[in-house]
Amino acid sequence: MDLSNPTNLLIASIYYVLTGLLAFFSLFAVYILIRYGKSVPLAFALAIVYSFFFLTILLQSYQTLHSLLA
Amino acid sequence: MARKLFPSQEEGEQIYLVIREHWVHLLLKIFVWVFFSAALVVFNRFAQTNIPALFVGAWGQTTSLFTQVYTLFLTLALFLIFVIYYLNIQIITGIRVVDISQEGLFSHTISELHIDKIEDATSETNGILGTVFNYGNVYVQTAGTVERFEFHNVPNPAAIEKLVLDLYEKNSNTAKDVAAGA
């Protein structure tokens, strides 16, 4: 990833801020679901399914960013 | 493995009703989510035929990055809609009414009202959807300065109101019997 170019730096910064916020809110949502959810198996199952989808898309987007800023 | 429904739940405390918002209200939120998801599909369909340059080379990768981050937003939004729906519950037991309220991610409130403190219960059904699908609001007024309990968009509000008043009657009769026996 080449961050010496100001445009690349700007794109990477926006990407990291946005995905950082999304990851934080996701983590917190999973936390409150497990903490306050009345059924532990249901909460865990949902948390795992959601985490799988979220992390898959996050990984894809990271790879796209990497090839864009190469 | 089921947990206690609320922290102060006593052993053997009879749970009469666990209420969540009516599914129609959940569906309305999901419709809004579908609208934003459809925007992405429409963008992909129309832009590919009308602005093909957006899908070629560096622009193509930028568009791809944008759609992937937007999909992350959508995934999180759907998850939050469900989590907030799932964690907002009202519980009616033999001795109290409990309102567990999850407002957003960072605010979790548990309020309790003992059945014997109830002064009045009111139910209301508003609007076309409320009338057709039989959902609405229930207000439980307490004695004293405590704010009234409000259950919004709950299914079958009249039955919930009746249950609260019946439990109040039952509780006050038991108290009278105990006083007479003493």
Main attributes of the structure:
heterodimer, A: about 70 residues, mainly alpha, 2 helices, about 0% strand, elongated, B: about 180 residues, alpha+beta, PH-domain like, 2 domains, four-stranded antiparallel sheet
Descriptive overview:
The complex is a heterodimer of chains A (70) and B (182). With 70 residues, chain A is mainly α. Chain A is 86% helix and 0% strand. Chain A has helices at 6-36, 40-68. In chain A, α1 packs antiparallel against α2. The relative contact order of chain A is 0.16. The model of chain A has no long low-confidence stretch (mean pLDDT 92). Chain B has 182 residues and is of the alpha+beta class. Chain B has two domains: 27-84; 89-181, Roll (PH-domain like), CATH 2.30.29. Chain B has four helices and seven strands. Chain B has helices spanning 23-50, 57-87, 127-133, 157-181, and strands spanning 15-19, 89-93, 96-103, 107-114, 118-124, 135-142, 149-155. In chain B, the strands form two sheets. A four-stranded antiparallel β-sheet of chain B has the order 1-2-3-4. In chain B, strands 5-6-7 form a three-stranded antiparallel β-sheet. In chain B, β3 (96-103) and β4 form a beta hairpin. In chain B, α1 (23-50) runs antiparallel to α2 (57-87). Chain B is elongated. Chains A and B meet through α1 and α2 of A and α2 of B.
**Count the strands of chain A?**
0
Quaternary structure type: heterodimer
**Got a strand count of chain B?**
7
Helix/strand class of chain B: alpha+beta
Mean pLDDT of chain A: 92
Q: Helical amount among residues of chain B, as a percent range?
A: 40-55%
CATH class of the largest domain in chain B: Mainly Beta
Specify the number of helices of chain B.
4
